[in-house]
Design goal:
eight-stranded parallel sheet; 22% strand; alpha/beta; 350 residues
Length: 350
């Protein structure tokens, strides 16, 4: 570790006079590690959730525009040093305003704040947009890797068909992960805005990692017959909107959008149904989302540590990851370290 965090007191804690670093979205994008390293960071976060992390379910408020929200996602990761010097402490503050559609303002805004774990001194303010997008894609990549061999066995030697439902920022961040974890797949993209699906399909073609890429206008054509389905549509009033019959051929379903697409019947038939963090899922279900969903069989971290807990059965494997603040902290910390080494960002006086 170099830069400002080497300026410490005798206890190794950040000095109160040290500058506070601000990293913009452009800074974050420039500092992202290679895909393989992102997957390793996501795996670290998922495994830590089993025993080494402390985080409450998201707490939030609801601003006046319909369906708007603002969530606080604090987290602590206990590191291997007994004095706490290698812990991670921080919070992501994220707001969503669906009413911004049609304006020149994004729907989602967020900031990650990292603190020194032994003094509480703030270390950095980091734009959470790209952090969220790429940590989410990396968690999906970890899930893909965990059941990739199962998918390959089920398709019996033919090319794997992967469908992306939704072609926004999340889908774009998933493309390099798909290229890394499942190269040679046949990729289908669907979005309620056909031009957006076509644009993402063109971008996927530029990666040159897939056997074929197509954009389809009809949701039925996209999901029916897919071996792997990743859902990542915008949040809205209509939940569980995809007909359960369309998932009949799916071997692995990864839901990034809570239950916007995947109906409860699919979750009940899943073998197994896995979430990123059980407490967050149960709290969200108690609040009204995930109506009819069963309790999860395991968390992704448990499957990574104990593969027997994720052995697939006759139904599809369903992985629902809601997004946890711990994953944001793990990614933000890696990006901050890179920023300090490269001298990237703006140092703010205290």
């Amino acid at each position: 570790m170099t830069g400002r965090r080497d300026s410490t007191d005798a206890l190794g804690m950040a000095g109160l006079g040290a500058p506070l670093r601000y990293l913009s979205a452009r800074d974050v994008e420039s500092l992202l590690p290679p895909v393989a390293d992102r997957l390793a960071l996501a795996r670290r976060a998922m495994v830590a959730l089993v025993a080494d992390a402390e985080l409450p379910p998201k707490i939030g408020v609801h601003p006046r525009p319909d369906a708007s929200f603002a969530h606080a996602m604090p987290a602590l990761l206990r590191g291997p040093a007994r004095d706490g010097s290698r812990d991670l402490l921080g919070i992501k503050w994220v707001s969503g305003f669906p009413g911004n559609d049609g304006r020149e303002v994004a729907r989602i805004h967020g900031t990650v704040i990292l603190d020194d774990p032994r003094s509480g001194v703030p270390l950095a303010f980091i734009d959470a947009g790209p952090v969220t997008a790429h940590r989410t894609a990396a968690v999906s990549g970890v899930a893909l890797g965990a059941w990739r061999d199962h998918v390959v066995r089920r398709v019996r030697g033919r090319t794997v068909n992967v469908t992306l439902v939704g072609a926004g920022v999340q889908a774009a961040s998933h493309l390099p992960v798909l290229a890394h974890v499942m190269p040679g797949a046949r990729v289908t993209v669907h979005d309620r805005h056909p031009e957006r699906a076509r644009s993402l399909a063109e971008h996927a073609g530029e990666i040159r990692a897939f056997a074929a890429i197509r954009a389809v206008d009809a949701l039925e054509d996209a999901v029916s017959g897919a071996d792997v389905v990743l859902t990542m549509v915008s949040f809205g009033a209509e939940h569980q909107r995809v007909d359960v019959k369309l998932f009949a051929a799916a071997v692995l379903i990864i839901a990034v959008d809570y239950d916007m697409c995947v109906p409860a019947a699919v979750a009940r038939d899943a073998r197994p149904f896995v979430v990123d963090e059980a407490g967050q899922f149960l709290a969200t279900r108690a609040a009204g989302t995930f109506a009819g969903y069963p309790d999860p069989a395991a968390t992704l971290g448990q499957v990574l540590l104990e593969p027997a807990s994720g052995v697939p059965g006759d139904g599809p494997v369903l992985v629902t990851h809601l997004g946890v603040g711990l994953a944001d902290l793990v990614f933000a910390d890696a990006i901050l370290r890179a920023a300090e080494q490269a001298g990237v960002g703006v140092e703010l006086p205290r």
